[in-house]
Specification:
binds copper (II) ion, about 20% helix, 6-stranded mixed beta sheet, 3 domains
């Protein structure tokens, strides 16, 4: 209810402001015209309106639909990312039906390799769901998701498996959705077979030919817009022989959120397609919201850890780094079977790409995951891995000052 109230309050305040401006402006023009009415004044007014129309027409042309942002022209192969006014009406007329999700962030702890080495038939069922949840405390968004979390479920299959994937679009959705998995060999990565209307289900089968860690995402036009609402996740295709055994595995995905209001503005937020086209993100998140993986990643001294780190984008490359750790091994761009990198500080993770990093924990403490384009810390791109256990003074010997000012550095 608070979200609706804050949005109406926002519109009402804008409406009252506009009404005052129009009223006073009209009074001013009326007074001027009554006193100064003449052919010259008529010409001056005509030219003023003609010039104003020209000024608006030159950059924007005549808008075909009433949509937000007004007059946005794009050149993609299908629908642009604008928000048509009719969608706003259908959103508010269906406002009550959206599920409220307390925490949109997918759980990062995904420890557990596939036990078998047999080739299998794997059933995967995913539901596309549009829900309401918070980007930050008091800042609400209409997320579009796979299974109600961001990122969507961590899918895990084995090289050679035949995967039967069914995508259902929840009854309460207002939009069509689909799924393109980068692990699929075939047109659209599966998107051509899974374009589902609200209430509909479609399925397809694919063989997981190539081992690696792959992004999946909704590919219904406008694709960037669907991804910016939260429709991305990852599928791990374990190699036939399996990945090296580790004690802990974590699932973290970076994403960008382009709200129309500035970062920190409370209430219900609308995605601003103009900002998205410019790459001007207000929030940059790990697992869908500010603090999405905090208090959820724990390990012990002596553990080996693997992080499956992906980037949903839609615009920026992530410079993934863990403060106070060195990646013993990086699978660059999540390549499995290729050259491994050893002893890496920061690894580049492209939009729509991933990396796997492994390291051993030697010293207890809090380790902060960041995009080392560090201004993004302030937009939300950080998380905490908490390590408990015995001190190891042979490796790190220091008196920790609890009052030291720090961003983790
Ligand atoms: Cu979608």
């Amino acid at each position: 209810m608070f979200e609706l109230f804050s949005f109406i309050q926002y519109l009402l305040l804008q409406g009252v402001g506009l009404a005052i401006a129009i009223g006073v402006g009209g009074l001013f023009i009326f007074t001027v015209l009554r006193k100064l009415h003449s052919p010259a004044m008529t010409w001056a007014l005509f030219l003023f309106f003609f010039g104003t129309c020209l000024f608006l027409y030159v950059p924007m042309g005549v808008p075909q639909t009433i949509s937000f942002p007004f007059g946005l022209k794009t050149y993609g192969p299908s629908d642009g990312p604008w928000l048509p006014l009719k969608n706003v009406f259908s959103f508010f007329s269906h406002f009550k039906q959206f599920e409220r999700v307390a925490d949109i962030a997918a759980l990062p702890d995904v420890t557990g390799a596939i036990a078998t080495t047999e080739e299998r038939e794997v059933e995967i069922r995913i539901t596309a769901k549009e829900v309401l949840s918070e980007i930050a405390p008091g800042v609400t968004m209409n997320y579009w998701t796979f299974d109600g979390t961001v990122p969507g479920p961590f899918l895990r299959v084995r090289e050679g498996d035949m995967v039967h994937l069914t995508l259902t679009n929840d009854q309460t959705s207002l939009h069509h959705h689909s799924i393109d998995l980068h692990a699929v060999t075939g047109p659209g990565g599966g998107a051509v077979a899974t374009n589902v209307a609200p209430g509909e289900s479609k399925d397809f089968r694919f063989r997981a030919l190539n081992p690696g860690l792959y992004v999946y995402h909704c590919a219904h036009p406008n694709v960037a817009n669907h991804m910016a609402h939260g429709m991305y996740g990852m599928i791990l295709v374990e190699p036939k022989e399996g990945l090296p055994k580790v004690d802990k595995e974590f699932y973290v995905m970076q994403g960008e959120i382009y709200t129309s209001e500035k970062m920190g503005a409370k209430g219900l937020q609308v995605i601003d397609a103009g900002k998205m086209l410019s790459g001007d993100a207000e929030y940059i998140t790990f697992n869908g919201r500010v603090g999405g993986v905090n208090d959820k990643m724990t390990a012990k001294v002596g553990d080996t850890v693997r992080i499956y780190f992906g980037n949903g984008g839609v615009n920026h490359i992530s410079s993934f780094h863990v403060i106070g750790e060195i990646f013993d091994t990086v699978y660059p761009e999540a390549s499995v079977g290729g050259t491994l990198f050893k002893n890496v500080q920061t690894t580049a993770v492209p939009a729509g790409g991933a990396a796997m990093v492994e390291f051993k924990l030697d010293v207890p403490g809090k380790y902060i995951l960041v995009d080392h384009a560090l201004a993004r810390l302030d937009r939300g791109a950080w998380g905490v891995l908490e390590v408990t256990g015995e001190e190891n003074k042979d490796i790190f010997d220091a008196k920790i000052d609890p009052n030291a000012p720090s961003d983790g550095h």
